[in-house]
Design a protein that fits this description.
The complex is a heterodimer of chains A (393) and B (301).
Chain A: H1 4-23, H2 30-41, H3 48-59, H4 63-77, H5 99-113, H6 118-126, H7 128-136, H8 144-157, E1 163-171, E2 177-178, H9 180-187, E3 199-206, E4 209-214, H10 220-235, E5 240-245, E6 249-251, H11 253-256, H12 261-271, H13 281-293, E7 302-306, H14 316-327, E8 331-335, H15 349-354, E9 360-362, H16 367-382
Parallel strand pairs in A: 4-5, 4-7, 7-8, 8-9
Antiparallel strand pairs in A: 1-3, 2-3, 5-6
Chain B: H1 8-17, H2 24-36, E1 40-43, H3 50-61, E2 65-69, H4 76-79, E3 81-83, H5 85-97, H6 104-111, E4 117-119, H7 121-126, E5 135-139, H8 146-158, E6 160-163, E7 167-170, E8 176-181, H9 189-194, E9 196-199, H10 205-215, H11 221-235, H12 245-257, H13 265-271, H14 279-287, H15 290-299
Parallel strand pairs in B: 1-8, 1-9, 2-5, 5-8
Antiparallel strand pairs in B: 3-4, 6-7
The chains are: A alpha/beta (393), B alpha/beta (301).
């Protein structure tokens, strides 16, 4: 061992570097650091690129983290401009909220934090007709206490999401595929006589459901309730992905994940920066296609888009993005809260451009319509959209 | 043959000898994987040479390549081992027919012995008696489902398997393990923790030209440069599927087969299908004025 002290210095430096990475949001456990030390041990520390490669391959495990790593590496080992000046991914979730965003944070936080007024709760449970009224009440006109009720209802609703057959086989009494391994083992009890045959069938696994929710100004009253539903759906731990968009697309799933729903909503409200602002549906869906759909997130999945379709300007990008998304998914359900009003006609340019690529077009303005949506998603899980009779919806 | 475990430079040289031109970063990471005996997880767009790296490493080490292609529903019977049930059944019947059926215990012992064991790639890799430890390539791990990932995790940490009827088999010479993923989904943290991670990017222009020239023997220098430059330009165009180095090589071969010495607009138009595999992408590139793109690729020479 040449120079115990030099070795100590390397360890200290590495540990601090690990801490910096952790603060920047890259998960670095002690195991990783140990690997990094072993890696550093095997290379020439004088060669900058080798040190870089050795640390990157041991400390980073995601492509998205590479950029953060790169910046941290330059800041820490090469004394480049401080890490604090770095922009985008680092301040994710830590950024100060701007004006419009803090409003959203407030409303969502209110729903999640405030204990329900006991009087309200009593009233709600006292009369079952009140529940019935709540189901059909427009989200836009709801009080905080009512939204609490909605949240509870969402938790129930979110539990029933569709399944699909997997290619993986599992043991089953009702199955029809012979399971030679288990049959053979059973035969051993009867000295090789195959009396008792064992079967397998294809396992059922959850079908992925991707929710993409418009949170622009015109959608705001509905978006609040929908985000509550998204949180409940993600929290079931099933294959659910949640996105929001106004002027930009946000992948909300990682923020909504976790056991504590209040904290999840708080995280989500911080992550969404374009709450109640303008809307760019076409660009947002295009971004979704390029980043997530291309990687296969929507393959075999049911995509639910909630938006009023108020697209400003040119709708050709919206039309082409919808066409692409439709090809890459199992079915598209579109929720438009305005459809809940009797006189509604899909006249908005965006809506007209999108509709040819929508399998099922539903309202989404109250609890009852969310129940319908879950039912439709279940049906689409079993039946292809083309065979789904529209009258049944 | 150079010893790849001695330095990143040695890795680089050994790969070059086998027609794989690796960046310094990739060479260093591969060197560390060999040196530390850890699996190497390669992620990157399709066609950047992830699978090829494993193949070439096997060649350079003089090792056997064992490949496991993953797909949805893959399980232990496909990946590790299975029993040859039909053979077992015939064996029992034969014993009965010839009146050789002994006491149950002996039959059982025979029946679940090595001669009825169907070895699949993972068992092959663990239970090897190769002089040089084999290279195990677990390809497109992102296609397998979660259950299989959990199983792999266990396997990659102990390098031993237990077959109830035979016992535990421990790995004498650990294979060099490569995992590749196209990132259709994010892999589990725990599995990643077992591995060294490398994101394989598209090569830089000069490197790509070199790769084409090495991979397509006899290619006119001019054609290689123009093709690489043209594909490089396509990659900046926001396509549904950006062409990888594999596509550049295929395309150059196609152009060579047609006797081309350099790019020309009509030949590019005719062969564009070997570079772009989506209808929308083809449309987009043709709309973007193919002739001009070709001119650009040629002009910068």
């Amino acid at each position: 061992m040449s120079g115990q002290r030099a070795g100590d210095a390397v360890v200290r430096k590495l540990v601090t570097f690990g801490r910096i990475l952790r603060e920047a949001g890259v998960e670095v456990g002690p195991g990783r650091l140990q690997d990094a030390l072993r890696a550093l041990d095997s290379i020439d520390l004088q060669i900058r690129d080798d040190v870089y490669a050795a640390l990157a391959c041991t400390l980073v495990a995601k492509r998205d983290d590479l950029e953060i790593f790169d910046r941290a590496f330059r800041a820490w080992f090469e004394r480049a401009p401080s890490l604090n000046h770095a922009q985008r991914p680092l301040d994710l979730g830590l950024a100060e909220m701007d004006e419009s965003h803090s409003v959203a944070a407030q409303t969502i936080a209110e729903i999640s934090m405030d204990p329900v007024d006991p009087d309200d709760a009593d009233k709600a449970s006292a009369a079952s007709s009140a529940t019935e009224m709540l189901r059909s009440k427009d989200f836009a006109g709801m009080t905080l206490a009512e939204l609490h009720e909605v949240r509870r209802a969402c938790e129930r609703l979110a539990r029933s999401l569709p399944k699909r057959r997997s290619r993986r086989l599992e043991a089953s009494h009702r199955g029809t595929l012979l399971d030679p391994r288990r049959t053979m083992r059973r035969a051993m009890h009867a000295e090789g006589e195959q009396i008792d045959r064992a079967f397998r069938e294809q396992k059922l696994i959850e079908r992925r459901v991707v929710f993409i929710c418009d949170i622009s100004g015109s959608m705001e009253p509905y978006a609040r309730a929908l985000v509550l539903f998204l949180q409940a759906a993600v929290a079931t731990g099933r294959r659910v992905e949640a996105f929001t968009f106004g002027t930009r697309l946000t992948h909300l799933t990682p923020f909504l994940d976790g056991r504590d729903p209040d904290r999840a909503l708080e995280r989500a409200s911080k992550a969404v920066r374009d709450w109640a602002g303008g809307t760019r549906i076409g660009e947002s869906l295009d971004a979704f296609n390029r980043v997530y759909a291309r990687r296969g997130m929507t393959r075999g999945a049911i995509v639910v888009i909630a938006s009023d379709g108020w697209e400003r300007g040119d709708t050709s990008l919206l039309a082409s993005s919808m066409a692409t998304l439709h090809r890459r998914s199992r079915a598209i359900v579109w929720l438009n809260p305005l459809k809940g009003h009797a006189a509604y006609q899909p006249l908005a340019g965006g809506m007209q451009a999108a509709l040819p690529h929508v399998d099922v077009f539903l309202p989404g303005h109250n609890l009852a319509s969310l129940e319908t949506m879950v039912r439709v998603i279940m049906q689409l899980g079993r039946t292809r959209a083309a065979q789904l009779s529209r009258s049944a919806v | 043959m150079t010893d790849m475990r001695s330095s990143p430079d040695a890795v680089s040289r050994a790969l070059t000898e086998h027609s794989y031109l690796a960046d310094r970063g990739l060479a260093t990471v591969l060197y560390l994987a060999l040196r530390l005996g850890k699996p190497l997880l390669l992620e990157g767009e399709a066609g950047v040479g992830k699978t090829e790296l494993a193949k070439v490493t096997a060649e350079a080490l003089g090792a056997r390549l064992i490949r496991l292609q993953c797909y949805e529903g893959i399980d232990v019977a496909h990946a590790l081992y299975d029993w040859a049930y039909a053979k077992q059944m015939l064996y029992i019947r034969t014993l009965e027919a010839t009146g050789q059926a002994k006491g149950g215990g002996d039959v059982l012992h025979d029946l679940f012995g090595p001669q009825f064991l169907e070895r699949r790639p993972l068992l092959d890799a663990i239970d090897n008696d190769d002089l040089v430890p084999p290279v195990l390539l677990i390809d497109e791990i992102d296609r397998a489902d979660d259950e299989f990932e959990a199983f792999l995790l266990e396997l990659l940490s102990d390098f031993q398997v237990t077959i109830p009827e035979i016992g535990t088999i421990t790995c004498e010479a650990r294979p060099v393990v490569f995992l590749t993923s196209n990132r259709t989904r994010e892999l589990h943290e725990a599995l990643k923790r077992r591995c060294l991670y490398m994101w394989v990017p598209h090569p830089e222009l000069e490197r790509e030209i070199q790769i084409v020239r090495v991979r397509v023997p006899g290619v006119p220098e001019r054609l290689a440069a123009e093709a690489a430059r043209f594909v490089g330009r396509l990659r900046t165009m926001d396509l549904a599927k950006t062409p990888g180095i594999a596509e550049t090589i295929d395309w150059t071969q196609a152009l060579m087969a047609l006797g081309e010495e350099e790019l020309s607009a009509d030949m590019v138009d005719a062969t564009l299908g070997s570079v772009l595999k989506y209808h929308e992408d083809l449309e987009k590139v043709r709309d973007a004025d193919l002739a001009r793109l070709v001119e650009e690729a040629k002009a910068t020479l």
